[in-house]
Predict the structure.
Amino acid sequence: MNPPDTATARIDAEGVLVAADGRLAIINAAAGGGDGQPLALPPIASLARLSRRLGIVIARPVTIADGDEDVGLWVRAVPADGGTRIEVSGWRPRDAAPPPIEGEADPFDAAEAQFVWESDAAMLLTAASGDLAPALIGQPLTRVFDLSADEALVPLLAAAANRTSFADQPARLASDARAVRLSARARLDAGGGFAGFAGTGRFAEDVSPEPSAQPAAFGDQFAERLDRALRTPLQRIVAHADSIGAQADGPVRAEYVDYAQDIASAARHLMGLVDDLVDLSAIERADFHVEVEPIDLADVTRRAAGLLSVRAANAEVRIDRPALGETLPAIGEFRRALQILVNLIGNAVRYSPRSGSVWLRLDREGATVSVTVADQGRGIAYEDQARIFDKFGRVDPTEPGGNGLGLYIARRLARAMGGDVSVESEPGQGARFTLTLPTDPNSVRPE
């Protein structure tokens, strides 16, 4: 049964109202409509057409006239039986602008706006003006604005997760790379959930950071708050995007499958960044330590390869892992050794060509054991081999994927266990990363 404030309607494939109930039927009749006629409420009719044309559920805020008053609604359009089912709730007077959420410090200021934009809860652009072409409506925000920089993604997703405003966020128009600054207020649906953004933008001076500028240190509180604020919302974003991409609730158009995959990929990238920042905060504390315990490095290597088997299969890369039954006793912390090898093998898969192979080789030498991860990628120039282990160090910052923290964290963890991570490579001949660990617990002397 629908909540008391919810009204419904059914619209056929031609946009003709089949039936309506509740307050929706009353307002539609007052506007000159009725059963057997086109819906007389243009914003809701437009949403129904869009949902029917795309073949997907669409939910977003809508404003309609109710006598002399504008009313804000939450409208959900669901394709059904060749037509559309409409569910309408909310029914509150429409303010000139969404009010700040109670208790929120609202930095939103539209005084200097050069364009305005709105999105729905799925981060699709629903309104645009100024230099934002109307043709962009329906596109994901990540297609309208270039938010690839991590510092730009965090405020947007954090604001969505916490139903807050954000202001003066750097981004670029994806169409022409012009620098912009974005601000927005979160909108809420009738149940208090996130319903999208009402935003503004202005063009900004394109100032690149000084090459010598160093990233600010991340404190423990920052990492903990970031983890709490983003992990669960990001997991939900990934789950919903994967569901759309897999067409679990019914077929959708091919471009929306692509959008869903883009959203899931961006969210997974950000989850990886959150993990890395939490690790970075931990390993740079003075009291950081690892557990000293016996482990089987061969088993850890097989497990790491198994965790990456789906990614490797999708990339058409073969992982040649240690044989079952092969052992390599070592001293270290199991989960940290696994973390290092997932990073090294994941990098090798990423940089390997299709139909390529990644080799995992075990070795013993004196009081140390090692596993080498070798790929068939393009290799790393000698002058770049030290830099890739620096914090935020990347050979090509424009290359998609990665954030310059994985190898830095891997080496710090290995050295905390009394081992190391090293690289050998030549351009055009792939790269070989080697994790070494001690076999004697008394030899563990963290850096």
Q: What stands out?
A: The mean pLDDT is 76. The domain at 115-203 is CATH 3.30.450.20 (Beta-Lactamase). The chain has four domains: 7-93, 115-203, 220-283, 293-443. The longest helix spans residues 254-283.
